[in-house]
Every structure is written in structure tokens, then in C-alpha cells.
Design brief:
The chain has helices at residues 2-13, 23-34, 46-60, 62-71, 76-92. With 95 residues, the chain is mainly alpha-helical. Residues 10-89 form the ATP synthase alpha subunit C-terminal domain.
């Protein structure tokens, strides 16, 4: 399990050259990884998960991204919302 966690986390931290990820996007993706929500995601699908999850956040949960960006932290309220969003997304994710 530790090896999957390490691999998954390394995959989350990768970014395309010349296409940096916004800090609020990085925070939300890393949140999903370090909180253990990605433990059940196949390591070979982490990159697809990340892309789909960010698309989901940008399309349906801009308020979460805006909160993280403007407050420079995850507030307790944002934490609760983000936890629910991540759990729901992971359970429905199919790559």
C-alpha cells in the first residue's frame, strides 16, 4: 500500500512542461491524494483521474477553487465540501 501511495502521489505532482497548474488546482489535487481518497484508484489511472477531477471542479465547483485561491488555505467549510466532492467523484470515476 505504501508503494501505491508513493506512486500515486508522484503522479499527482507531475505537471506538463510550460503548462503550470494553478495553485488552487494543485491544492485540491494534492488534498485528494494525501487524505487517502485515491487509495482505491488504479495507479495507472491517476493522470486521467487528475484531469477529469480538475475538469469537474472547474465546471461544477468553481466556488471551491475560488475559496482556496482567495483565502490561501482550506477553511473548515471548504474542507467539508471538498471531502464530499472528492468522495463522490472517486466513487463515480471510470477511466
Amino acid at each position: 500500500m505504501a508503494n501505491n501511495f508513493t506512486y500515486n502521489y508522484n503522479q499527482l505532482l507531475k505537471q506538463c512542461q510550460y503548462v503550470p497548474m494553478a495553485i488552487e488546482e494543485q491544492v485540491c489535487v494534492i488534498y485528494a491524494g494525501v487524505r487517502g481518497h485515491l487509495d482505491k484508484v488504479d495507479p495507472s489511472k491517476i493522470t486521467k483521474f487528475e484531469q477529469a477531477f480538475l475538469q469537474h471542479l472547474k465546471g461544477q465547483h468553481k466556488d471551491i477553487l475560488e475559496s482556496v485561491r482567495s483565502k490561501n488555505e482550506i477553511t473548515p467549510e471548504t474542507d467539508a465540501k471538498l471531502k464530499e466532492i472528492v468522495q463522490n467523484f472517486v466513487s463515480s470515476f471510470k477511466a
